[in-house]
Amino acid sequence: MTHDASHASPSADGHTAPNPSARPLLTLRPQPKRAPGRRVLAVTLALSSLAIPACHKHEEQPEVEHHKIVVTSPMAKDVVITQQYVCQIRSRRNIKVRAMENGYLEEIPVKEGQAVKKGDVLFTVIPTLYKAKLAAELAEVKLAEQELANTNRLFKAKPPLVSKNEVLLFEAKLAKAKAKADQAEAELNFTKVRAPFDGMIDRLHEQHGSLVKEGDALTTLSDNSVMWVYFNVPEARYLDYMAGSFRENEGQHIELVLANGSKFPRGGKIGAIEAQFNNENGNIPFRADFANPEGLLRHGMTGNVLIHHTLKNALVIPQRATFEILDKQYVYVVGKDDVVHQREIVVRHELQDVYVISRGLGVDDRFVYEGIRQVHEGERVECEFRPPDQVLANQKYHAE
Fold first, then answer.
1. What is the pLDDT of residues 67-83, one digit of tens each?
2. Distance CA 107, CA 125 (A)
3. Of 55, 116, 186, 312, most Cβ neighbours within 10 A?
4. Strand pairing partners for 199?
């Protein structure tokens, strides 16, 4: 084993002699001794510095204020349910008025937006050619009548100068001439376009002197005496209606809200339900009929239909007593032993501040109304019961 050259070698008297050429590996300096009193003081100050923030944090913690737990029960009462649907307003009859013959239009006797009666002349095609055709056909009728009369005299002569077949032939000729005259008269009448029912004239598509062809649209005529209001109903509500909850007229009222927010002064009634559902949105069109004697409603308007229906003995609870977990509604039910349990409820209708429920609670159940954040599943609570009529009397509060 080799030794480092820096180590000291022993001298003759046994003491180790320092090697002047060797470098010391580590030099130790004597540390001054601290007085015992200073050491105790430093430890005391360190402990005090740790204790002061802890005391400060303890003082800053707010005291949790516990409100009184208030419970109540569902209330059975008659509730007016309002369902709102976007609607389109249509005239009971809305048709295109078209030309029935070719020709030029004479002066038009009606104006846009004018109310007309059934049978009023709306348009007239210049009838000169049709009058001439009718006159010619009437002349053919007179000629056939003369020929038939002469043939009858010859047949009745003694002996007959013509056969019975000759008489029948001229009778057929007369019938044919009369048919052509009737056709010409009808064509002449077609030059006058008349209103098929009472209504209101829309925009005029053609003017005086325009050349029109058979089938050209001249204007639109609308019967606005009764308006048909169409709206889409979801499948679930359709089933409720067909089950009878909305079919009875008693307790049902239908209103129409116009685009400016005002309500149409007359109520309506369900007039028809279409035959099939729309597979894309799951709705079926309903139609409500509204009498419109003042003519306020026009074809093409929009609005909202409000259907009010009274539910008898519906179970009602305040919304603020519920809480939601994964799109389901729950309440805390307090049993007879004052132990709290969470229970799911099924909301049938949502009204302002209250829910109408169909399943989950009975009129004898007690549930937490105030303090739902302070209770937990399975714990026993001290609570105060508040009558449901008193609770529902003032519901302008937000949920906890």
1. 578 999 999 998 888 89
2. 9
3. 116
4. 116
Q: How confident is the model at residue 207 (pLDDT cuts 50, 70, 90)?
A: very high
Residue 260 has pLDDT above 70, yes or no: yes
Q: Dig out the tokens for 185 from the structure.
A: 């008269």
Contacts within 8 Å (CB) and 24+ apart, 245-250: 245/309, 246/307, 246/309
The pTM is what?
Answer: 0.67
Name the pairing type of β-strands 340-350 and 354-359: antiparallel
Are 185 and 112 a contacting pair, CB within 8 Å? no
- Reported as a single tens digit per residue, the pLDDT across 230-257 is 999 999 889 988 876 555 545 578 999 9
**Rounded to 10 degrees, what is the CA torsion of 165, 168, 174, 176?**
-90
Question: Where does 127-190 sit in CATH, by number?
Answer: 1.10.287
- Are 105 and 208 spatial neighbours (Cβ–Cβ below 8 Å)? yes
HSE of 265 in the Cβ direction (CA atoms, 13 Å)? 5
pLDDT at residue 252, rounded to an integer = 76
Question: At how many degrees (to 10) do helices 164-189 and 128-156 cross?
Answer: 160
What CATH class does 82-90+224-312 carry? Answer: mainly beta
Lookup result for tokens 């004018």: 114
> What is the tens place of the pLDDT at every residue in 306-353?
999 888 889 999 999 999 998 899 999 999 999 999 999 999 888 888
Domain with CATH 2.40.420.20 in the chain: 69-79+313-392
Q: Which amino acid is at 277?
A: F
Q: With 90 as the cut, is the pLDDT of residue 398 above it? A: no
Read off the tokens for 267.
Answer: 């109520």
